[in-house]
């Protein structure tokens, strides 16, 4: 299976062909995959070099000129390093664009902590109006990229702000994502587990045989409060409204959103994800998952302990 990032350049090449508003801005990362697109659209595929603040600023400048910029590099260099430019050049100036990241929380462990970004979604949460998409399969990445870049279903050009978080971690099969709703995957009565993006396969393995509802989320901002509320209501009379969020980034990133969704319902929320402690023996992706308790065996133990505590 190809990776989400393998899909990125071909999808963007087609979007460049289809829509004269679309532009791509790179900071060396991914440049080789765009060589043909650079020759075909030299005015709309721009490589600024290893200058991440300029990367974001140039993207916002293209938006001011009426284009739909798609800005790409590693998550730590796209959201964290040039955060001031994301905040001011896009947000303060009131323009839209699409940030597309790579390397996720720890996709390239040998790159070290400089190339890890478990806090990226939490950082964007401090800003207003950013949609956040977290695909769990390359097919979903293609769908969500097209959804983010536009045009919309009505054919209108998009000018909103969106972040698409690509990862080498992926589920075995794609789901019919739509850029808005959580999808019900399994129905139960003992609680609700929300699996975000590439966490779905781990969550399904972890909850095999448990009487829980599993929801699948690939668009986490705006948070789909209605589907979560519906799933909690469907647990049945007298059931405890226990919710577990399993996210492939900083643990607890969406607990406030889940609490807000259930404000008038007595409930408990457990946020599972990447811990704050830096793992200095970088190892492999699978080792990071285990260290953060995100492998299937660890998730099962943590989820069952939480649900058992309410019994």
TrEMBL record:
Molecular function via GO: magnesium ion binding
Domain Transketolase-like pyrimidine-binding: start-end pairs: 2-174
Superkingdom to which the source organism belongs: Bacteria
Pfam families linked: Transket_pyr
Protein name, entry field: Transketolase
């Amino acid at each position: 299976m190809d990776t989400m990032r393998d899909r990125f350049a071909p999808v963007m090449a087609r979007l460049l062909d289809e829509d004269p508003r679309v532009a791509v801005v790179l900071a060396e990362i991914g440049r080789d995959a765009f060589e043909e697109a650079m020759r075909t659209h030299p005015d709309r595929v721009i490589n600024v070099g290893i200058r991440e603040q300029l990367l974001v600023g140039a993207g916002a400048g293209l938006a001011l000129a009426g284009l739909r910029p798609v800005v790409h590099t590693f998550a730590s260099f796209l959201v964290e390093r040039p955060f001031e430019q994301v905040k001011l050049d896009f947000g303060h100036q009131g323009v839209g664009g699409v940030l597309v990241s790579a390397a996720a929380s720890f996709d390239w462990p040998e790159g070290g902590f400089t190339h890890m970004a478990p806090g990226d979604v939490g950082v964007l949460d401090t800003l207003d109006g950013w949609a956040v998409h977290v695909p769990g399969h390359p097919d979903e990445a293609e769908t969500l990229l097209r959804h983010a870049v536009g045009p919309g279903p009505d054919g209108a050009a998009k000018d909103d702000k969106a972040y698409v978080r690509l990862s080498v971690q992926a589920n075995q099969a794609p789901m019919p994502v739509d850029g808005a709703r959580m999808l019900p995957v399994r129905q139960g009565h003992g609680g609700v587990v929300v699996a975000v993006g590439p966490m779905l396969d781990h969550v399904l393995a972890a909850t095999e045989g448990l009487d829980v509802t599993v929801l699948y989320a690939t668009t986490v901002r705006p948070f789909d409060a209605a589907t979560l509320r519906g799933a909690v209501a469907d647990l049945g009379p007298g059931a405890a409204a226990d919710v577990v969020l399993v996210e492939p980034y900083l643990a607890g990133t969406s607990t406030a959103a889940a609490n807000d969704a259930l404000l008038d319902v007595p409930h408990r929320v457990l946020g599972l994800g990447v811990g704050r402690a830096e793992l200095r023996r970088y190892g492999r992706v699978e080792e990071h998952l285990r260290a953060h308790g995100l492998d299937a065996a660890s998730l099962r133990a943590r989820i069952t302990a939480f649900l058992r505590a309410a019994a």
